[in-house]
């Protein structure tokens, strides 16, 4: 793994109060980078900051913010101004599964805003600075579902496909400015987000869920090496099969069948 301190002294982790983001924060602190912990649940962030201070002697900054609020990224910028931010992890995310027209439009628009527009805003805000000074790294958290259209998670998968495309393109654009960009596409991972997912019971899908610490570790190890990483052998095999063995129409049908059997909302088979 590259010495992450060479990017800068601080790392912004959006969505640091649980799951994959919390693991990014832990591992960044262990690597000597001070995390800026961003999420809504201030108590969680403060408890994590205290723990990281005890374990690694880092003085994390807690930024309790609803990233769906207008001007949230401006507020975050204001709170970190003057800090040497080297890494930004655009990880905060939500999702809603179920038949598309059964979901509220406002919920789907929140997915678009938090999982799609927020990475764009963070990339633009911090990317300008990174490119200008020729130093920095951006990690975008997509999903294994970015690889195919996914019925019953239609909007979420489409937004994650956008994130994957955005990050891979920025990886190329910013390489000549010495700025690293990595997209990480986790498969099913044991987090609160997965356990509390609305409209779907991932337990019904079988298969082992990945440890969020492994997801974060894989991403941090590949930062500066690759444009895109998929943690886990099985997730990589599924991705390869989707890309090279199945026509897209078959992949859509397969995902449709798999996801439909795990739906839990009204009007679904469950
Ligand atoms: N778990 C999986 O199987 C899986 C698979 C593929 C991709 N992913 C992606 O991985 C990322 C992390 O997900 P996770 O599974 O770790 O979920 P998680 O445990 O629910 O964590 C989500 C994080 O986002 C924050 N967040 C949510 N809404 C927010 C808002 N409005 N403002 C600020 N922060 C907000 C949450 O904090 P607060 O609630 O405190 O605000 C939390 O820290 C997401 O982008 C997700 O799409 C997850």
UniProtKB/TrEMBL annotation:
<dbReference type="InterPro" id="IPR036291">
    <property type="entry name" value="NAD(P)-bd_dom_sf"/>
</dbReference>
<dbReference type="GO" id="GO:0016020">
    <property type="term" value="C:membrane"/>
</dbReference>
<comment type="similarity">
    <text>Belongs to the short-chain dehydrogenases/reductases (SDR) family.</text>
</comment>
<dbReference type="InterPro" id="IPR002347">
    <property type="entry name" value="SDR_fam"/>
</dbReference>
<dbReference type="GO" id="GO:0016491">
    <property type="term" value="F:oxidoreductase activity"/>
</dbReference>
<protein>
    <recommendedName>
        <fullName>Short-chain dehydrogenase</fullName>
    </recommendedName>
</protein>
<keyword id="KW-0560">Oxidoreductase</keyword>
<dbReference type="Pfam" id="PF00106">
    <property type="entry name" value="adh_short"/>
</dbReference>
